[in-house]
Design brief:
Length: 76
Amino acid sequence: MKLSKPIMSITQIVKETGMAKEVVMEMVNQPDQDFAWKTSGGGKWLIDTERFVRCIEQERVDQRRRRMLQAGMLLR
């Protein structure tokens, strides 16, 4: 996935990707995330799109690995 800008707001990401706003909000509110920050004064979220995409791709790999482990197709 490639996004049009290096830094985007949640609204922009939702419009461009079609992802649900709730999903993006859940991702930015994860304590260990390193791709999003709030503007000063507690304003809107800004997201580093390169790191955001990397996080999404890693999550897909992790989900696939979990499914394979559950199916007994992978050894730990």
